[in-house]
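User: Please predict structures.

Assistant: First:
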Amino acid sequence: MKNNNMTIECFNSENIGSYVKPFRKTPVYGPIDSRRLDKSLGINILKQGYYCNFSCIYCECGLDSQFKNQKLIFYELSEIKDGLKKRLASNEKIDTITMSGMTEPTLYPKFGKLIDLVTDLRDTYSPNTPTALFTNGYKLDFKNLNKIDKIFVKLDVGTEEMFQRFNRPKISTLNNTIKQIIKSNTKMIQSIFVKGADGNISDFDNYIKLIKQINPDEIQLYTLLYAYNESFDLHPLSIDELKVLSNEIKKNTNSIVKIYTNPVKEGKIFVY
């Protein structure tokens, strides 16, 4: 079953890598089933068009070319406020309020004010619900970033060459990402690993070297779940393969390593 913002169906692990995430059409959507955050209420900054400063080859949000004739329009803070206030006042089950959506959230022109808005509304209507941010680490120098409870920074590679091929940044470098992570003192890294001719598993040893440099408290490993651009040769890792990577990281660093695979149990209702 589909609506403007979500798809609801029974989860089947055989469909991993083929779940098509719908384009979000409201400033607040969900709650969806998150592998890390359970029932996650999402904040979406894009009202029309699409742009991201990365063009990762595994991205589930589609390609910029699909929206090349659409003017890029962000939601106003007032629109996000009205949507979030309504949802938080409804008393529905929400485990996390997440700034994620269909692009890099920190690209929002008023991101600092968005942090204040989200955390203030949370404090008023649902004070026990944590806030979260998923980011590619391009810009982490906001003065009020520490108001967000959980910040997950993406790092999938260990070299600039793989960064350019796998994450395909438009206005950034791997060195900039590392500087932003270290400077912000962000301590949770999320990393996808995939097999195939266009995968990043071959860069794993270099990735561990970077992890040693960053010294995060926690690393979250995962693999493909959603559909991606089929022009690339990518294949998900098995849970056993992820465990091998996890053990290598633990052996070479002081970081806690967690593995995230299925969002819900087999056969259960999956909202995404």
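Second:
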Amino acid sequence: MVFIVMGVSGCGKTTVGKLLAGRIAFPFHDADDFHSQGNLEKMNNGVPLTDEDRVPWLFDLAVHVAQWNRHGGAVLACSALKKQYRDMLDWNGKEEVAYIHLKGDRDLILGRMKDRTDHFFPPSLLESQFRNYFKKSDRQKGVTGSNLLIMLERRLDNIVFRLGFANSRAEARQLVMHSHFRINGKKVNIPSYLVSAGSVIEVSEKSRNMARIKESLETVARRGLPQWLELDKANFRGVLKALPTREDLVMPIQEQLIVELYSK
């Protein structure tokens, strides 16, 4: 039997998994340790992994799950939030696997994440900001959870990061606050500014010689550019061609859980 301890970032998968493994005398493994170097670089830079990135990782884990079952069992800490991921891990139910889904309230998980300086997904929004985004999303037509994720993607600091003008969202936020970007020709220094479809985002003339921006642009090809964005690298300019859809966002997020939490 292989026990897979699953849940969102910060829920305690590693801690609980190690405790369980110690109690039943099974070896413990962390799924993050099986990522390729390319995946690790993406996550360290705040770039969400695509399903294409995850498939080789999941297949490798599935092979190990089968091997662990042949050698007495194991405990694995893995988010495994999507059913299609779990189907790969247990070979569509052919392997003897038990899933343990950990949950925690917002304050508990947020508190843990704030204390983790080495994690791939540090919190970036204040509670008050996030609640305001939720309220706006709830008032819009459509699915609240999808509206929320799309709104967060439209933040200027996120767009700057996605276009490759910064190596992280934290760096993008600082660059925006120091007035290094223009939207449709006008200076904007508000990181939370929501960029509209068709808008042109460009680096200010005076900022185009900044080494950090030039160096970041060199990594665009490796990081990848979302299909809803267009980049004119030579002219330090990007365009939000169209608002992303939920299908365009490949982050491993169960937004319905966010909706349930903030609807209480």
